[in-house]
From TrEMBL:
The chain crosses the membrane at residues 75-96. GO terms for molecular function: ATP binding; phosphorelay sensor kinase activity. This is histidine kinase. It is found in: Cell membrane. It comes from Ruminococcus bicirculans (ex Wegman et al. 2014).
Amino acid sequence: MIRTKDVTGGIHRVEAKRLADEIAETGSYDLTKYPHITGVFSDDDIYSSNEPYVIIEINGTLYRVEYKANGDNNIVVVNCAFGAIFLLMIVLLLYIRQHIIVPFGRLNTVPQELARGNLSVEIPEEKSRFFGKFTWGVNLLREKIEDDRQRELSTQREKKLLLLSLSHDIKTPLSAIKLNAKALEKGIYKDTEKQREVAQNINKRADEIEQFVSEITKAASKDFMTFEVTQGEVFLSQVITKISARYVPQLETCGTEFSVQKFNDCILFCDPDRLGECLQNLMENAIKYGDGKRIEIGFDRMDGCQLITVCNTGCTLEEKELPQIFESFHRGNNANKVQGNGLGLFICKRLMSLMGGEVYAEIQGDRFCVTLIVRLA
């Protein structure tokens, strides 16, 4: 652009040629006809200016024809544009620093403190639309961890008190059994009727101990997880779309054929998040315990309920184990080489029960199928 004023070609040369023809024909000229020409000089004035010019010869006389050079104006415009872009970049970088980098720096140590168990760590509130929701979520997470810790401590304290109380209560019948047993051993009771009475007393005390043991077992197997559901309405298509978006890429990478049967969309009455959690548990089980060839989601409708079935090929579970698979910490004979804790189906059953639904499993040849029964809205 700087060199444009030195370029010999251009519209000013066309106008200079027309000007030369006009002077040659009429001996005069009218500059208003030539917008790009600013002046015409001859004789002693031919070298009196530093403006851009061209030299033309007309009838043996040299003329200096000056013209407008637009290169400088273009340079100014381009420089202004680059300056505006530079200022915009500075403003953008300052905005990123103020609303993203600085707030993130203030939150940098929060995950470490939470991991160390420091639940009283201060989490600064952020009004930024980038981090405001994030800090709000971290605060909810901290409060949830703290509530769970308090609930766990309360549960452990109650169980400990219960076990101490039952242990103390067991001592009374146990002492009576030991005394009666020693009396029978030493032959203190010669009368058959008295011996029968002592044996009945021992049996009665044993029943008391059995009752106490039953209470201990019940306390030990009491729900160790808290489940909360918030009933609402959701389209079946929304739930299935989320599941497909989550697992299609993963299963394609593994080479597993994934099929979703056609279904008629409907509105389900459930907790959408919890229903999604149940389907995720079933999909994870199908991936872990299947042979990796095919996983299918099927649908049916019955008695005002929507049935959603997840099936996988390569089932090695025995029929006799079906009644136990929904118990906590139960793992089938096909889980020896697969990591897990035996809680997936247990969680599904508890959640479906709280949502007013049900879940059941069946073996169809070499396929293992689990069906969720969800109420229609």
